[in-house]
């Protein structure tokens, strides 16, 4: 028995496909069997499984568990909930790995799988290994057992353990994603006044798309905060591992700006600690971490890559522009948006300022959002290499951590290839609008030299 996956499914950080087109129950079975085979060959016996609120998730969970069991490995089904709840189970239950079935912030017909293996991120070559085992039918055989447990309350207990925050008036937008029930239970345990939006878990996403990094998806939260004169608002993506936020004036607090707030609080307790952010983050963040006495570290984009770097450096805090925030000081080091919301309350309390004041204190920067545009899969890495070659020949100041981040007197611009899609990602930040226009012209010039133009914005 062998299985071949659709070529678009096995990504850098996770496995993803369109249900009924590139993803079926047979794929889920093969993923379960291959993953469990790797667990068994490493001496493991049990895998935790969770799933999000998409319509296809229960079906895929059943097939995944069947595959795990047929490899002779037991499955612990923690049921419907956000991805960080599965990470919590993998960190605290007697298991050797975990798989969350989730389409994250993708359209409703997508679904996928995020994995953790023996407490470490499972990505890159690990994911390719799943495909190799399936194609060869190189699977273990046996009869594993399946058990279901409810860990929602235990997970929420952990989110508020040792809570040291004050009482605020907060808006919460769950976007009909998998974190809805957790947010209801969490806010019931917190002091203050809480106004909730769209906590019904609904895979149709009837109100707005669950991606808080796109400003249009924050419109309902912004309206709520304005109407009720709330202190701030938080929003969550489809599987609850990414956070978005707005202050009391309705200004977006982007991922790298949230990280400035968290860094100020964490560095009070851990002076000199390393704080990691991805290459898309503002220079203002790296400067602020240094100013606070921390060690700023710019690293590659991708939640798995960031988690691995945190372990390597002993960093207590990391984050991405996309709203993945990782705490490893008094938490487990994975991206958990409900926990990040709790830590925002605590940070404002510890720093003695409102979230609006903390946002207002930040150095003003003129920058673009993340710009994503389609490019042929076979060209995306080649284009970045061509740009790097030309920049080197011109003597430009370039950081090559992840693509090309180019420093000029005007500010900086970035061009990198996405690891998960056939897109190039660009971003620029400057002191003023005229300088930003020059940076964008520099990006366009480099693209033109490689035969490309910056096209319409591509989805995630």
DSSP E strands, number: 22
User: SS-based structural class?
Assistant: alpha/beta
What is the CATH superfamily classification of the largest domain?
Alpha-D-Glucose-1,6-Bisphosphate, subunit A, domain 3
CATH architecture of the largest domain: 3-Layer(aba) Sandwich
User: Would you identify the regions where 5 or more consecutive residues have pLDDT less than 50?
Assistant: none
Shape type: globular
Care to describe what's here?
- The chain has 460 residues and is an alpha/beta fold.
- The chain folds into three domains: 15-152, 3-Layer(aba) Sandwich (Alpha-D-Glucose-1,6-Bisphosphate, Chain A, domain 3); 169-360, 3-Layer(aba) Sandwich (Alpha-D-Glucose-1,6-Bisphosphate, Chain A, domain 3), CATH 3.40.120.10; 366-449, TATA-Binding Protein.
- It has helices at residues 25-41, 57-70, 83-92, 125-136, 152-159, 180-189, 219-228, 255-269, 283-291, 303-313, 337-351, 355-360, 380-393, 433-449; strands spanning 15-18, 46-51, 74-80, 97-101, 110-117, 120-121, 146-148, 168-173, 192-197, 232-236, 243-247, 252-253, 274-278, 295-299, 317-319, 325-327, 366-367, 371-374, 397-399, 404-408, 411-417, 423-430.
- Strands 1, 2, 3, 4, 5, 6 and 7 form a seven-stranded mixed β-sheet that branches. Strands 17, 18, 19, 20, 21 and 22 form a six-stranded antiparallel β-sheet that branches.
- The protein starts with 14 loop residues before the first strand and ends in an 11-residue tail after the last helix.
- The mean pLDDT is 96.
């Amino acid at each position: 028995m062998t299985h071949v996956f659709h070529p678009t499914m096995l990504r850098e950080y996770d496995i993803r496909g369109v249900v009924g087109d590139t993803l079926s129950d047979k794929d889920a079975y093969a993923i379960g069997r291959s993953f469990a085979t790797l667990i068994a060959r490493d001496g493991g016996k049990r895998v935790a499984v969770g799933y999000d609120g998409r319509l296809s998730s229960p079906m895929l969970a059943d097939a995944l568990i069947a595959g795990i069991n047929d490899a002779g490995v037991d499955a612990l089904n923690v049921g419907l909930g956000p991805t960080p709840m599965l990470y919590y189970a993998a960190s605290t239950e007697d298991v050797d790995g975990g798989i969350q079935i989730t389409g994250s912030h993708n359209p409703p017909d997508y679904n996928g799988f995020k994995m953790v293996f023996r407490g470490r991120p499972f990505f890159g070559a690990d994911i390719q290994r799943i495909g190799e085992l399936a194609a060869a039918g190189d699977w273990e055989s046996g009869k594993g057992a399946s058990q279901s447990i409810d860990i929602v309350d235990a997970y929420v207990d952990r989110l508020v353990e040792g809570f040291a925050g004050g009482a605020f008036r907060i808006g919460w937008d769950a976007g009909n994603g998998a974190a809805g029930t957790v947010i209801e239970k969490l806010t019931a345990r917190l002091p203050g006044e809480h106004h909730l939006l769209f906590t019904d878990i609904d895979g149709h996403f009837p109100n707005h798309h669950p991606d808080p990094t796109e400003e249009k998806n924050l419109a309902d939260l912004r309206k709520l905060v304005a109407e009720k004169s709330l202190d701030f608002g938080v929003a969550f993506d489809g599987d609850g591992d990414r956070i978005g936020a707005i202050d009391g004036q309705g200004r977006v607090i982007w991922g790298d700006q949230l990280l400035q707030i968290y860094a100020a609080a964490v560095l009070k307790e851990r002076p000199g600690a390393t704080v990691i952010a991805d290459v898309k983050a503002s220079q203002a963040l790296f400067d602020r971490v240094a100013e606070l006495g921390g060690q700023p570290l710019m690293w590659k984009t991708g939640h798995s890559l960031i988690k691995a770097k945190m372990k390597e450096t002993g960093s207590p805090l990391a984050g991405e522009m996309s709203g993945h925030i990782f705490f490893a000081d008094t938490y487990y080091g994975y991206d958990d948006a409900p926990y990040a919301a709790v830590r925002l309350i605590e940070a404002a309390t510890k720093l003695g300022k409102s979230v609006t004041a903390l946002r207002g204190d930040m150095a003003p920067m003129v920058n673009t959002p993340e710009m994503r545009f389609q490019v042929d899969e076979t060209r995306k890495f080649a284009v970045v290499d061509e740009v790097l070659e030309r920049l080197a020949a011109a003597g430009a100041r370039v950081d090559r951590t992840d693509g090309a981040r180019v420093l000029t007197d005007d500010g900086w611009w970035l061009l990198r290839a996405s690891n998960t899609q056939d897109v190039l990602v660009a971003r620029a930040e400057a002191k003023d609008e005229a300088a930003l226009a020059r940076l964008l012209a520099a990006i366009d010039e480099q693209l033109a030299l490689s035969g490309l133009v910056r096209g319409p914005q591509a989805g995630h």
